[in-house]
Structures are given as structure tokens and as C-alpha cells.
Amino acid sequence: MSNYPELYMMIDGEKVTGGNRETFNVVNPATGETIGALPLADAADLDRALEVAEKGFKIWRKSSPQDRANVLQGAARLMMERREDLARTATMEQGKPLAEARIEVMMNVGLFNFYAGEVFRLYGRELVRPEGTRSTVRHEPVGPVAAFAPWNFPLGNPGRKLGAPIAAGCSVILKSAEETPASALGVLQCLLDAGLPKEVAQAVFGVPDEVSRHLLGSPIIRKLSFTGSTVVGKHLARLATENMQRTTMELGGHGPVLVFDDVDVERVLNTAVGGKYRNAGQVCVSPTRFIVQENVFAKFRDGFVERAQKIKVGNGLDDDTQMGPMANARRPEAIDRLIANAKGKGAILNTGGERIGNQGFFYAPSVLSEIPLDANIMNEEPFGPVALINPFKNEEDMIAEANRLPYGLAAYAWTEDYKRQQRLGVELEAGMIGINSHMIGGSDSPFGGVKWSGHGSEDGPEGVRACMVTKAVHEG
Is 250 marked active-site? Predict the structure, then answer.
């Protein structure tokens, strides 16, 4: 497709292509067609990126808050100007509807503008000491950051991975997903065009395990930032221990949604169904396990099924599409296996459970109900367009089910009981909780999980501080 951007790696401001490098075929998930060939890094490329990142840190750590703010605000303006091109690229290589891709661009704009203000608020403090002595606490950039971003938010994830280190005064090597490289390169180019020194941010692609071992094996890297699966996150965390690199890990989830019998079921459904099938369910905070009080279970299930069946599935570039394809050929296969296992255990398939069409990676919006807890899909993150709906008797049982799994990224609850709302805010084991809302993110709000869903936060003041170290200076 002629309007798909050129693919390359960015090292020291140079677009690196060609040579004897291996390549990765980028596929449009709506058609299954190859739309680009991505060059993959060899060891020499990674060594060069590390060398440049070390130089970049020495440059950028001395930058003024105003310098950093200018770059971040400038990049935000450029992303606004390039919004349609960026969104179209994201849809072509990831599949989501254009409307969702445009929102992703605006997420980056908001985050970069927030960080542009936050650079002036990276305060230290002076301690109370006797006259003639002085003790201060300083926050300084941690050093070069290795940042790994997945494919599900091809613009937003690179924005998070680049924005925080740059705001903190760090350099960064971004290894975004090979399935969605042009989106990440588009975000990086906005920063470079806004005046970011070319040594400060690099973009490489390659075999994930080879790249991660090479970068984390270098003492130049002082921090790892990773978004992805729990299995891979644990592996990278182990690698990071060798050089004692700091880590921010945003890992998998299995979002519980508690629906109590005091709610307006129609209102809940009008929000929950759209939240479930956003990005074809390929969202780490996707509402997935609907834990519904018995009195409203049947009404909720039937209403959910009715709405799911009306969702318009199609190419994300089409104006009337509400849900696009899954991002790659692996995802429909994984959903098929999980649904088959659940049905074999006795779950009821209310709708969906099948692929759509004979090209691309489309999958029907699906609903399973009355699923045994030992079904794989009740214990593994499905990461797809499948809602799981089960009845429960009371609040105690519902909270126990919500907290049953080792994941703790996002949790949701719907109830009109104020005291219950307060209890749920305390008792649900998750890093982010939405009560009567599925909106749990914001540029000024920390984003991260607990338990197997990781540690540390992105976004908000916490996102910048995660890229800094604390130093105490005592003067006699």
C-alpha cells in the first residue's frame, strides 16, 4: 500500500535500513497482506544504539526544564497536526477503528503537555539542620532507559515509553513491537522535529529476546520499562537483576467487573459492552470477568448478548466500523482454543465464538456465561473480544472472585450503595479501580498494577519520578 510509511530503525538521527539485516514483514490485519518490510537490528546496531544513548544521557541530563518542556509541547503540537496520518498508520498496521486511533493520538498530546508542566515540579527538599550545615534531597534522572512497548496501542504505548524518560532528563532506546513499527516511528519523529537532540532517543527493532538480552546485558542501561505479558515481564525482570536495573512493569490483567443488583442495568450495559470490545478486547485493562449478582444476572447477560450481536465488525479504515480485526494471526487461534476449552468444561456460548470472513483476522464479538472457574479462560487473560458473565450471590462472594487471580491491574464495580463503593475501593486488589465508570486513565493519573500485573506506574507525576533516582546531599 503506497500510503504506508517507510520503515527503518532510528539510531543517532539516522534512518537505518538495508544491508544484510534480516527483515520482518508487517501485515495489515484487516486484509492479511504484507504492507512493509522492517529491518531488524543486529548486534552492531544495538551496540551503536547503546553508545549513542550513553552520549545522549550526558547531553539531556543537563538540559533545563524549559528545554524539556519546549520539546514535549512542540511534539504535542506536531502530533495534533499529524493526527490523521498517525491514526491511519496505526489502523493499517494494528487494525483498530480510526476513531480509536485518533483518541490514541490525543492521549499522547495530553500526556506530553502534562509532562511539559511536570518538569517544573520535580522538586527536592531541604532538611532542617543546625546552622552551618545543610542537607538536601535531590531527584535526578536515572540514566539511559530501555523501553519495550507492545502492539495493542501502537501510538500510546510508545508515547508513554518516550515521554517519561525525556521529561525526567534521561535518554531512551525504544524497542516497540515489530507488528506496529511505523506508529512508534511517527511519535519519535514528532519529538525529533520538535528539537529533541538526536542522541537522546533511538528506535530499534529485532527478535525480542535477542534485543532484550543485549540491551539489559549492558551496564549503560540503568532502567527497564516494559509493557506486555506477565510471562515475558517476569523473564525481563530476571534479566534486569544482573545489572540491578530499575524496573517499571505494566503486565497482564484479567479485569473483574462487579455488577450489583441495585444498578440501572441498561446504563451499565451501555458502558460495559463498548468497553469490552474496544480494540477487539486487546486491552490490558479490558473489562473481562463480569461478576453479576443473581437478581440481575439474566437481564444483564441477555442485554449484553443483544448489544454484542449488533456491533459492526470491519476494516478499521471504514467509517461505520465499531470493532476491527485482531492484530495478528495468533490472536484468533488463541481465542478459538480458550472458547473450545470453556465449552468443554460446560460453559454456555451465547454468541460469537467464530471467525468472520475469509481474509484478515476478524473474530465475532463473543459472550460466554456460566463458565466453570477451572476453565482456562477464567484464569488466563484472553486478550480478545470475549466477555465472561457469571452469577454470584452476595458482595462477599463477588469480592472473593474478583481477587481470586494473581492479576491486579484494573477492576471495576457498579453499585449505587455509597458505603459499598467505599468498601470496594479498599478491598479490590488492583492498581486501578473504576466505580460506576470504565474511565480509569488520565495523563495526570498513575497507571499500573499490583501482584502479577507488575509494579511501578506510568503517567502522572509518578511516571516521571519512575525515571529518577533520589540522592541525599549532606554538607558540613
Answer: yes
